[in-house]
Specification:
The chain is α+β, with helices and mostly antiparallel strands. Helix content is 39%, strand content 27%. It has 8 helices and 6 strands; from the N terminus they run ααααβαββαβαββα. A 6-stranded antiparallel sheet has the order 2-3-1-4-6-5, with helices on one face. Strand 2 and strand 3 form a beta hairpin. Helix 1 packs across helix 3 and helix 1 crosses helix 4. The protein is elongated, with a radius of gyration of 22 Å. The two termini are 44 Å apart. 21% of the residues are buried. The model has no long low-confidence stretch (mean pLDDT 89).
């Protein structure tokens, strides 16, 4: 016979955000127990008490709590902000790479510039003061989307971060819990750039500061 605890583990595994919330102790267990009880009763085939579901959740949370030595937040370092950004996304073409490679010749090295190439698209994120120059240089290419009013939060990653599972997912899950939309994610080995709407930056920065401590 499948125990309540086993069924709870199976249900939580289907919802990664709930698992993350339990790991971070963000979820009210009593409320979650009330939410899960009807579905558990259907799957188990008998009536069960809310207290039994709550006990199963507590057991699950205690068993799955990450160890202190592997906490992603311990490997997130200093943060900085760069506002006034524009995200330009172009369809990839045989000529786009060459044109993008020349953008640095027309943009001050102190200006924000990141380029991210995917299989079908290439995104160029620059300060709004120079996005017109980028559009001029890439005028022969197909501009698919243009998003303005953006800010990048840059997170510096501490040594050893490459051995920690979930280091990149951690801030994204925090933002998802708070309804914060991530526009772009650009990373290097020791740096993570999270691009957000200007309207979400204050809440996002506060959330990260609280998590990092």
């Amino acid at each position: 016979m499948i125990t309540i605890t086993k069924r709870v583990e199976t249900l939580v595994a289907k919802w990664p955000l709930i698992k993350q919330g339990l790991d971070l102790d963000l979820i009210n267990l009593s409320s979650l127990a009330r939410h899960l009880r009807p579905q558990l009763e259907v799957e188990i085939g008998e009536r069960i008490s809310e207290a039994a579901v709550l006990m199963a959740l507590r057991r699950y949370q205690a068993k799955s709590m990450p160890t202190a030595s592997a906490r992603p937040q311990d490997f997130l370092g200093d943060m900085s902000l760069r506002g006034g950004l524009t995200d330009l996304t172009y369809a990839n073409s045989p000529t786009l790479n060459k044109r993008v490679s020349k953008l640095s010749e027309h943009i001050n090295p102190q200006q924000y510039l990141t380029v991210s190439r995917g299989l079908l698209q290439t995104s160029v994120i620059v300060h709004e003061d120079v996005h017109g120059e980028v559009e001029n240089q890439l005028a022969a290419e197909h501009l698919e989307t243009k998003v303005t009013g953006l800010t990048a939060i840059t997170l510096h990653l501490k040594p050893g971060h490459d051995k920690v599972a979930g280091i990149l997912a951690y801030p994204l899950n925090l933002f998802a819990w708070r309804g914060i939309t991530v526009i772009e994610l650009v990373s290097t080995f020791d740096e993570l750039n999270i691009v957000l709407y200007d309207t979400d930056v204050e809440e996002a920065f506060r959330t990260l500061k609280h998590a990092i401590g």
